[in-house]
Amino acid sequence: MTGYIYDPIFTLHGSDEHIENRFRVERIHEVAQHFPLVRYPIKKASKEELSWIHDPNYVEWVEKAYEEGYRFILNEDTLLTPRSFEVASYAAGSTMPIIDAFANGQITNAFLNIRPPGHHAERKMGQGFCIFNNIALMARYAQHRGFAKVLIVDFDVHHGNGTQDIFYTDDTVCYFSTHEKNNYPYFTGSVEEIGEGRGKGYNINRPYGDYCTDEELLRLYEDLPGWFDFDIVLVSAGYDLMKDEAISTAQITFDGLRALIRRLLDFAGDKPIAFVLEGGYNLDSLAQSAEVTLQELTGV
Predict the structure, then answer these.
(1) Which of 26, 45, 112, 144 might form a disulfide with 276, Cβ 3.0–4.6 angstroms?
(2) What is the pLDDT of residues 245-269, one digit of tens each?
(3) Residue 205 main-chain phi, psi, to 5 deg
(4) Which of 13, 29, 119, 120 is catalytic?
């Protein structure tokens, strides 16, 4: 059984003129209607729960920022609109019902159609369209529910600097990222960044050059950490690596994406696996990418 998260609340942040807009989740939700999915209710993360992964002062700042006149975080990439704190709290918190469903044996995999995205949000600061780090909270909550060792795989075309930052000294969460090296956020994501302290060796970056092909990308996934005895796999599913996207040079086809999804499902084996929406801004390509993912998750 495949779990699914979506709610119209996720359309109430940002601007229709911004590249990261409500139409993304709406188009995916249209596609999702054609699949046998178990829909779960959304949940708003509390400030205490958000503080598991973010500095409490940052959480407090986001809550009050719009009323105090702020309209973005760092720069205009990451908008603050009247309901941004609420929507971002729901995006992060709505990862938790899926973990509950895994823990209760109700589902074996899931797709989370949520926004704003999260993998650029560091412990002390959001950025790159991201306010709170959704998949990081999902990982921490998974550990609260008994999934002691968490593997996070990030195939977004951009490096998940926020996820790396949050777990850089942690040996209970292994982060594996493939990303375009000459792209945002530019100064993180090198092979040499392997973690620190107890986390040394648990941060794995596999950057690729411009115009990456299916074959080049899939070859990098031969480095998935088979040595890490994970209990659950969480995937930052950023579909901006597809060839029709405007903000990268990667040339990944839908056949390549399907092969990648299958590889991740095979790697997870009998362990739960969830795909959490990150990037993807060409609406037609995004819809087809979600369709490919849901076909592989449901077997339909």
Answers:
(1) 112
(2) 999 999 999 999 999 999 999 999 9
(3) -110, 135
(4) 120
Is residue 120 flagged as an active site residue? yes
Domain that holds residue 118: 2-298
pTM assigned to the model? 0.98
User: What are 161-178's pLDDT values in tens digits?
Assistant: 999 999 999 999 999 999
Q: How many domains does the chain contain in total?
A: 1
Cross-strand partners of 180: 208
